[in-house]
Amino acid sequence: MQRLSIIGSTGSIGTQALTIVREDPELRAVVLAARSNIALLKEQIYEFRPELVCVFDHDRAQELDRELRDEGVLPDSDIPRIVSGMDGLCEAAAYEGSDTVLVSVVGMIGIRPTMAAIRAGKKIALANKETLVCAGHIIMPMIREYGVELMPVDSEHSAIYQCLMGEEHESIEHIYLTASGGPFRGKKRDELRHMTASDALKHPNWSMGSKITIDSATMVNKALEIMEAHWLFDVDIDDIIPIIQPKSIIHSMVEFRDGAIKAQLGSPSMLVPIAFSLYAPGRPHVKEEPRLDLSVLRSIEFEEPDPETFRGLSLGIRAGKAGGLMPTIFNAANEEAVALFLDGSIGFLDIDEAIGYAMDHMDNLPDPELESILKAETEARGLVRAYFDKGDRSI
Q: What ranges do the domains of the chain cover?
């Protein structure tokens, strides 16, 4: 029996992870955590009967507790203990009765729960980019110090992990990090000026949360993944090469010093990398996973990304090379700009403009402590809001 804590159970990754739990009696979700979606969380509680539940929003946590008791679906003895806030999230991640912690929340909110899980000696299945992008210099030494296993969940990083199984680190020449190109692949910058959130959310291959889908459209997502791969696999930023593979059939590749290239292929679905993060090196049968039909696969195309049109990619590579606080500034400015874009306050091209503005107007700091990282996040967000509030768009 593998007992799971799912931090972000109502999101895209969390709900798909519960699909896997549903199919395997040897998996049990003992902890569920969500930000505020108590309607879906309540359904999950009734089905999976967790022992501990965290709702980040304190008022919503109290509301959920009242509803569980008033509705009478569960006997009082089966109603889980409910906690809230960052302390509750860290308690959920470090819960004594769990073996594996799936961190699938979006944003820097995932850093502290990941650290709590590491200190508690849990296996970590990491689907939160920001933990390594912003705090990789803190997290990876902790992984080694506490001797815990860290499994990537992103399809690209799972693919790289699989390609490296049985290989020596010294033999790595390059990592090729594939990207679909998103909904705007092939378009030029002038064509993107009037694109709406509805346009940007129409990803051609993947079904993801709205924030990640927008990041795919700007190619910021690929920049974040390059920084994440740098920490996961201890490979220089310059040796991690983004490449467009429009059908999302090849999830990533590794080139070795003898010239050989290994690739991991599959249909564009997150069920396989989620399952692999839980079972590796074993491979369970994933019932709902669509299979890649090689008999109808006639060709696989590659393209180089367009850094002039998708400036978020270039800015992210610059941030990754700079290190220190710059990845946090890049990430926080993007998060704030994406939120403004999704609510219609700014245009699509304003996103990378805001990122560049924040990076140019904030000081870097090498090897920052967690408090400095969190402070820089707040400052970068505030800088982006002020930038658009005053209407000064000149960088």
A: 2-152, 157-268+289-308, 323-389
Cα–Cα dist 143/148, whole Å: 6
pLDDT digits (tens, 9 = 90+) for 7-46: 999 999 999 999 999 999 999 999 999 999 999 999 999 9
Question: Which class is 323-389 in CATH?
Answer: mainly alpha
- Nearest partner of 312 among 186, 225, 199, judged by Cα: 225
CATH 3.30.300.30 fits 2-152, yes or no: no
Q: Please give the structure tokens belonging to residue 232.
A: 């996961």
- The 10s digit of each residue's pLDDT in 232-255 is 999 999 999 999 999 889 999 999
Q: Which residues have CB under 8 Å from 88's CB, separation 6+? A: 33, 54, 55, 56, 61
Burial of 301 (0-12, 13-18, 19+ CB in 10 A): exposed
Q: State the CB neighbour count (10 A cutoff) for residue 8.
A: 27
Report d(CA 131, CA 140) in Å as an integer.
Answer: 10
**What residues contact residue 165 under an 8 Å CB cut-off, 6+ apart?**
281
pTM equals 0.93
